[in-house]
Amino acid sequence: MQADVQLWQYAYDRHVLLVSPTLLLTAMKLIQTGWKQDAVNKNAQQIAERAGKLYDKLVGFTDNFETIGKKLDDAHDAYQQARRQLSEGRGNALAQAEQLRLLNAKTSKRLPASVLATALPEEEEERPST
Prior knowledge:
Elements (H helix, E strand, L loop, with lengths): L5 H8 L7 H67 L5 H10 L10 H7 L11
């Protein structure tokens, strides 16, 4: 390098680093550290990308979860409305069916007493006159 001062620049332009024997180990350690840092940076970038994808999936899942909750609420409301139609108010379907049984309709089963307790007004719980 002392004989040709352009040699170092020539090598450097071609991505070759000329070092003396005393600097060789230091240069190799620096290169190793650089490679390790590059690997860490690549992993960090991949982790950030995966974290973004995971977050997006969680947002989508949360939206779907909220939709499920609303639909369950709607289904529960529809169930309650249907149950009221079946067993509440004068002339509800269960009370009328029980009145038919009390009028000696041929049946092989009976509605549970717990269901009839809410379906029959107290004055209708007695057997009609024949």
